[in-house]
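Run log, item B.
One chain of 385 residues. Sequence copied directly from the ordering sheet:
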Amino acid sequence: MTRTIIVVGGGPAGLSFVRSMAGSPHRLVLIEPQSREKLAAPPADGREIALTMRSETILRQLGVWRHFPEGEVHPLRSARVRNGSSPFAMAIGPEKGDALGHLVSNHRIRQALFETMVDQANVDLHCGRKVVRASTDPRGVRVCLDDGSEQVGDLLVAADSRFSAMREQLEIDASITRFGHTMLVCRISHSLPHQGISTEWFDHARTVALLPLAEGMSGLVVTVPDAEAKRICALGDAALESLFAGYLGGQWGEIALVTRPQAYPLAMTFAENFATTRSALTGDTAVGMHPVTAHGFNFGLLSAWRLAELVRDAADPGAGDLLRRYAIRHRIATMPLYEATRHLVGLYTDDRLFARPIRAGMLRLGALRPVSRIMGRLLSEARST
């Protein structure tokens, strides 16, 4: 029997869920405020996504990976973490293979997901539309759109960002941690090779990360207090190059700005429940991560995949036992790293004197072989899905 699943949000999580439902007997209704044109050709937003090996496996199974343009997939061979000006670095390498994962630009992933999904037979797209009201009860789901139309179904999937309006309408609370910091992302070119190694270091009042892309080019991520971010974004190109060169300390040679920085205020969110009556949360709507551990997209993709596995062929995709199983599995998979990340960010943005030796000690501990192996396994997630 064909049932209807309403998906609110055409970002990576929403698109991934819809694509994961290919071949299902159920009808998918995807509602997204952006136009179809923007979904098909999303603008570059400066974000480089570190895809784990598990995420790569999922994207290959969904048929998405082959849609990435040639030269737009970059291996992440290992990672280094430093504290301030100390020359010591905690090194993290893959447990298996020669890479922790791959780096792909966020807009390329979104474009590939849309290209893969757009002709899917069981999908009904409603682009340029907003949800003004949604309700669920044991009998079904009703969603009212801003054009006065209604959609009714059997399951509502909320995938509309970490500050989700759908989550609020479903009366699901969320823990929100705001850091008062903004992430600035841009691309730079540099004269010395990066060797496929990402480097991240925690300095006084800022965090800097370099993500290896094509040879001689990297994604630069700078996290600073909100007011400082506004000041930096107002600088001209020459002043930005000088500032960023100072941050990097000449370690990558001469640098040049390739793209202007784009700003993203930082917050972490964790929903109190990942499912309620005939509804489920996916992506950032369920768990919004800090970029320091690069797991935000990976958790979102995993949530969409896990939910689809449970409901794809179910007689009733909104059945309570299925949604409870999804919620429990995804909470177990995400909460430990979420809490560890939240405390890690707190420690590494604390400039009080007592915090500095603790940070240094943690890096030394992380360099021990058993710990670094666990870190490599966690970051690459190399095990099969």
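Observations after the first pass:
- DSSP finds eleven helices and 21 strands in the chain.
- The domain at 4-176+266-380 is CATH 3.50.50.60 (FAD/NAD(P)-binding domain).
Flagged for discussion on Thursday.
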